[in-house]
# Entry
Amino acid sequence: MAMGISIHVGLNRIDPVYYGAGNELSGCINDARDMQDLAVKQGFQTTLMVDEEATAEAVISAIAGTAHSLRPGDMLLLTYSGHGSQVPDKNGDEPDGKDETWCLYDRMLVDDELNALWSQFKAGVRICMLSDSCHSGTVARVQQTRELMKSPAFNGDFRELLTPTSASSKRADVKRGATTSRSTADLTPPSSAPEIRFRLLPDTVAARAYEKSKALYDSIQRVIGDRVKAAIDASVILISGCQDNQLSADGVSNGLFTQRLKEVWRDGSFQGDYSAFHKAIAARMPSTQSPNYFTVGAADTGFIKQKPFTVTTDATNAPVTSSLWVTGPESLSRSDAAPSFRVNPGPNIYFIVEVATDASLFDTANARTRRNSANFYGSWSDSSHFSGTEYTLPDAVWQRLKGADALYYRIGSTATSEGWTGYMVSTPDQQYANAPYISLSGASSTNSDTGTATGVPSIMGPASISVDDPAPSFDVDTAGAPYFIVEVATQSRLLSGTVPDEERTADKFYATWQDSSLQTGSTYDLPEEVWQRLRPIEALYYRVGTTTSESGWENYQVSTDDGDVDNAPWIDVSGG
# Structure
């Protein structure tokens, strides 16, 4: 099943410490948010970074993290909206002696850095990059732009950018630290001309920024070196807002390129491939701003011929709108490490994970009282919601549950980091029989060479009991060890060996090692006299410990570690 991840970067302003004041734009954050909205509808998991959030380190980390997560058949959509500029080429990979840059909040990101990042993606990954920015900013082009701004054709091409055209222009960018100032810096037109801002960092500002951090930009290129020419196994499609010798226009609501892209896309009704998409956008653009289209990396005809922004790779090009899924390994040995899962929370950002030894335990309304730490785990019980594309089951949970024949799993997703806004699940409660599962194999036995147990012991008692019932019985799996002890307590913390002995009073705690020898077999019955002492309670917590020696505690293991006793299994006691 294909996964789509999108990253959207928009900067109306950049740090004046590096670039000086008076170079703000207006439509870039709206561009990023509109592209994020598009991506959400197409089934992508999205990340938005605007203004001071969009540092070079943050953007590079986001892309590199995605390279780690995506597998063959998956897709990355990367969009950038902001200033573009250049720095001198120091590694000889540019015919014109200039490297193009994105102007991120704290520094410029050199195109060599992006090229090096592409080489980190696996073969079969699809990458679509949209860049609504200028790619260069020489003095000659600034002068050409001033002359252009005086012409009648300019008014027809760009005047509409001065008037908000959509609800996006009304967004409260100030909430994210954005500014709507449209200072024209070196490109101020005559008073009779429209006040259009281009996404070009003025030449004087770019030169000053480069000189301030010359050593940094030069060292980046030297360090990257030949890696910029490294083989790119992924397939990359770039559609940019203009040619390298042109300027991209900014607007109140959107940049001109993004505005035309949205018009062509028509909320997903566009039909055609990436090439047709580019041509349709270009047909709506003025001759002074011609979007560029090119590909790098591995040739992938199927990708190029897809409808843009399609996450799936099937022949229908069907988007995965509102997809919500989780996948794990089909099988594991009990000697393996805890399983990891790939996660897509669908239209939401955050997710939780539930794992059970019996799929019917997902039926919350009818199975809640049967759940205990030996048969069920919900990540919400000891952690906040997660985000991202991967999840690894905690090892302590894996040790408790892996004695089962199979582990069933599902995810739930929510729009908020805390709470359950917009909650949905990958397997509904009443459809628990359809939950995916991991088949577990590998005997829980002693190592023939060392005589030590290879697994972790487990113990299971009834989910609930009445105070009037006989003393409870337990099923014990010693994981191959010949001897065991059992501990029960009215408070989970009393199971920990770190609790002082004086707190473990007879009406709160009992351990078989207090008055009998080690136990053997696969079952244990709590003595009736112990049950009589403990039962005026609400719950009874328990664990098992095992040893390979009849006379001591060699290779001692417990089903619930001292540091994890809050998750010890328990019996719900009623009538107490």
Q: What stands out?
A: The two ends are 51 Å apart (CA to CA). The longest helix spans residues 28-41. The chain is about 20% helix and 25% strand. The CA atoms of residues 188 and 195 lie 7 Å apart.
